[in-house]
Amino acid sequence: MLNVATPKSLSDTSFQQDSLSEGSTPSEHGTQFSPAQHQAWAISKVSVAASDRTWSIVPGVLSFDPVWYPNIAWMHHVFASDPPENGPLVIFNAIQQLYCQDNSRDRRIAERLKTLYRDALDEGEKMQAASVRQFAEFFVAHAAPGFPKITLTPDGTLRVRWIAGPGNFTAIEFTGTSLVKLVAEIPRNSSTAQYFASELVSNVVGVARDLGASFA
Amino acid sequence: MTDLDDSHHFFRHIKKTWMHDEFIEPAAFRLRTLDNGQLEHGLSINWVEFFQRPTPKEAVQPLRDLLQKKGRTVGGESRFALLKVRGAKAAAARFTNIQIVTDEEPNDLSHALVKGYQPFNVQVAEELAKVVITSFAAKA
Q1: Chain B residue whose CA is closest to A196
Q2: Is the pTM of this model over 0.95?
Q3: For a disulfide at A126, which of A30, A119, A156, A182, Cβ 3.0-4.6 Å?
Q4: Please, are residues A198 and A183 in contact by the beta-carbon 8 Å criterion?
């Protein structure tokens, strides 16, 4: 269970994760936001400093006045009734999970994911929650690959690409299913080998490395 | 539908989410999966020479205006990727022969499609991205 409390006032913008508890519903605060608004707000406004595990609310531009700070515990209840792979909560959790890793790469990835989510909302593009979940789990499990290019596909899945040079890249698309898509181009003497494959997410790095693919 | 002349050019609108910094993800050239599980029948593009401007760059503004009139979101950080018809066909030919044809819409006579690569969606998208000549900011 996610334990997060509601700050008491606009000036009270920092609070410790350990001290947080489940709380009230928006109706008790007299404000009616849709779950999507709450989630979008939370994704864009909450950041986690992994060094001290302190949550902080970052003031920013809102399309509505935040007279009620979103209670994330309440949102968790809301989305618990939805298919879990469809909720923005999955995206929020992925960002949180990456932020909380003790390395700068994963925090950069979390920042990129947050930006991408905002951009997707702006552009009316969907972001598949199952893909985001798989993406986060992949990077948590694999510390060695460098920081890749991270984009959405037109189908809303996340795709990452490590580019070592012309004709030398590795791309993984997180389908949200057991098999991810691997595309790679690898220099072979004066030619370029090209691979299009599906592979278990647990095997994909090893398989690609065996081919000579680069994750730098 | 009429084939675009091989010497002509087309724009593909590249959304911000399909880019990372200046890098255009080749998936931007992939056919979308429709709700029925089928791939869309063609990649939506715009015929550059239709606008009759001296340079492709000068065709960006009328194209942007046109897309916005159609109700399309054209974000300031999105871009228009420029490709040549001949180059695109040659690149795709490694996997399959594609058709690049006009597909006029009532409110968009420059609309065109890249067709015929459903079986090689990922592969052709990778190849098309390699022959992008340049790209222009959607909003200067």
Answers
A1: B123
A2: no
A3: A156
A4: no
